[in-house]
Amino acid sequence: MSGIAAPPKTEKKTRTERPRLYKVILLNDDFTPRDFVVEVLKGIFRMTESEALGVMLTAHRRGASVVAVFTREVAETKAQQGNDAGQSAGYPLTFTTEREE
Ligand code: NFA
């Protein structure tokens, strides 16, 4: 043995946790026109016509529909943009966010 101790390891393992995800949920209402909902979904969530139609119809029939899942900031921003689009046009269109799990 040399009698010379090795220096203590100071390196720390970096653990990168996956960010929590948030659902954006579209709520049904009796006033916002179907076409308007579809246009908002296409514009804000980059959906195709048929994807947007499917989400709109699910909310219309069941009361609510999951639109998509994002990190918190993105989900909240997109929900707000959707609500603002409805407000600007005089409709009660409502998007909410909900943490997953
Ligand atoms: N229920 C609305 C109508 O019949 C359409 C709608 C669907 C509104 C989904 C909001 C969300 N005009």
From TrEMBL:
Protein's gene? clpS_2
Which organism does this sequence originate in?
Mameliella alba
Mention one GO molecular function. Answer: peptidase activity
Q: Name one GO biological process term.
A: proteolysis
Subunit and interaction comment: Binds to the N-terminal domain of the chaperone ClpA.
Keywords in UniProt for this one? Hydrolase, Protease
Q: Where is the Adaptor protein ClpS core domain?
A: 18-96
The record, for HAMAP family, names: ClpS
InterPro entries, alphabetized? ClpS, ClpS_core, Ribosomal_bL12_C/ClpS-like
- Extract the SUPFAM superfamilies matched here: ClpS-like
Q: Which family does it belong to?
A: Belongs to the ClpS family.
Function text: Involved in the modulation of the specificity of the ClpAP-mediated ATP-dependent protein degradation.
Region Disordered: which residues?
77-101
Protein name (record): ATP-dependent Clp protease adapter protein ClpS
